Amino acid sequence: MTASSQPRVLVTGAAGRVGSRFAEFAAGRYRLRLSDRPQADMSALHAYGEVVSADLTDPDAMTALCSDVDTVVHLAGEPRPDAGWDTLLPSNVIGAYNVFEAAAGAGCRRLVFASSVHAVVGYPEDKQIRVTDPVNPATLYGVTKCFGEALGRYYGEQRGISVIALRIGAYQTRESALTIRGERIDHVYISPRDLNQLLVRAIEFDGDGFLMVNATSENSIQHLDLTEARTVLGYAPVDGFVDGRLHAE
Predict the structure, then answer these.
(1) Is the pLDDT at 5 greater than 90, yes or no?
(2) At a CB cut-off of 8 Å and minimum separation 6, what does 218 contact?
(3) 158-215 confidence digits (pLDDT tens)
(4) pLDDT in the model for residue 218
């Protein structure tokens, strides 16, 4: 595939933990347009694609970002589970709406939305959660992820753009996963390598409408059921916590 025939993929939140690693991984596969807020340091991203600063709360900026784009991978937003409403509203509610509306208006084929296990973290740890279970957030951050999932269903089923929502678990590198203390992640862990694979499968999936999938690695205890990720997207995770021991590169 020549560079000119590669699909253009917009990644919002490209300077963040997930976005920066995905940009490096996917640079040879797609024509990347990498965006983050104006105050973000995006100097390292220039090696991977076109770099554009833009504010999620600016609808015109989002419209320009989505021009001539095949797929939007929407990773941007306030990432802190303990964030307050005044911080969450601009990025995770207004900003999410602006991105969905701009993508639909620009005729993008697909939008991949980074949801979170926090949309369902109110369930007990010993319950396996299917994508068909009702949302159950325990924080306002989780509430905003439920809002994003609902936006995805609306735009996917009513507005003609394919939407895949990934309910992402505890995203950690091997090094950081091994140093976490006082927080259990073995049942929801996902490695950068596995999430990169799942993002590619979501971008390249030949389907339409709305699809929700859970996103964790191959953990021996699975808090989030991976049936849809495996059977619909063909996801095959290679890392994970097995009997309490981390297997990851």
Answers:
(1) no
(2) 194, 237, 238, 239, 240, 242
(3) 999 999 999 999 999 999 998 887 688 999 999 999 999 999 999 999 999 999 999 9
(4) 97
Cα 140 to chain centroid, rounded: 18
Q: Please give the Cα distance from 57 to 35 (Å, whole number).
A: 13
Q: How far apart are the first and last CA of the chain?
A: 29
Beta strands in the chain (DSSP E): 8-12, 31-36, 50-53, 71-74, 110-116, 162-168, 170-171, 189-190, 210-215, 240-242, 245-247
CB 52, CB 91: distance < 8 Å = no
Cβ neighbours of 128 (radius 10 Å): 14
Yes or no: say if 112 and 195 are a contact pair by the CB < 8 Å rule: no
Question: Which residue is listed with tokens 């996103």?
Answer: 215
Give the separation between CA 171 and CA 192, rounded to whole angstroms: 7
pTM confidence score: 0.96
Distance CA 9, CA 17 (A): 18
Nearest to 137 by CA among 126, 117, 122, 150: 122
Q: How many angstroms separate the CA atoms of 171 and 245, rounded?
A: 16
- pLDDT tens-place string over residues 15-50: 999 999 999 999 999 999 999 999 999 999 999 999
Rounded distance between C-alpha atoms, residue 141 and residue 145, angstroms: 7
For the annotated catalytic residues, the residue numbers are 141
Residue 199 has, within 13 A of its CA and on its CB side, a CA count of: 28
